[in-house]
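pinned: reference chain
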Amino acid sequence: MDMPIRILGRDTSINVRKVLWTCHELGTGFVREDYGNGFASTHTATYLNLNPNGQVPVLIDDTFVLWESNTICRYLASKHAATGLLPAHPRGRAQVEQWMDWQATELNPAWRYPFMALIRQDPACQDADTLAAGGKEWNRMMGILDTRLTHTGAFVTGDEFTLADVVLGLSVNRWKMTPISHADLPAVEAYYQRLQQREGFTLYGANGMP
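pinned: its structure tokens
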């Protein structure tokens, strides 16, 4: 019998929750182990041998080890031939991956300072001007998503839910739960309501954690 995959990482991590939500959508079993921020250290030699960045999550599938949350989600969808979540056609797949990469490289940097200041209460992130600029940039980036969702009228890449919605759904939840001045983005609001119809989102997205 195949062993269930192992997911190393605390379930309060937004990146771990991406993977958990993906597993839920796939109906695949897993064993999660607490690592990071108050749990088992991610800076031991053993853990760094798995992920030299010392971050969560790490996926262990038999002898195969993988890190980077968006890549883990793509791997799981490919392994289970879930072409609804990650299309097999090159253009469809590229569009999903484009928005996943945008989330990681463009949207994430925009929310980092406000999130660290207001949610984590990091003493190093308490400059009022930088916080205001961060909130403005975060809203600007969310406006890009709003424009996209206005165009599709449903999910990020069109009528069907994909992995792009897993990673961006969690990002929308973080934006809504962080106490900044939020731009009026009706398509994002409708999208957020649409996502709440999915059990995976209620479990791992809109679950009281930013």
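why pinned: The first helix runs from residue 14 to 26. The beta strands are 5-8, 30-33, 58-61, 64-67.
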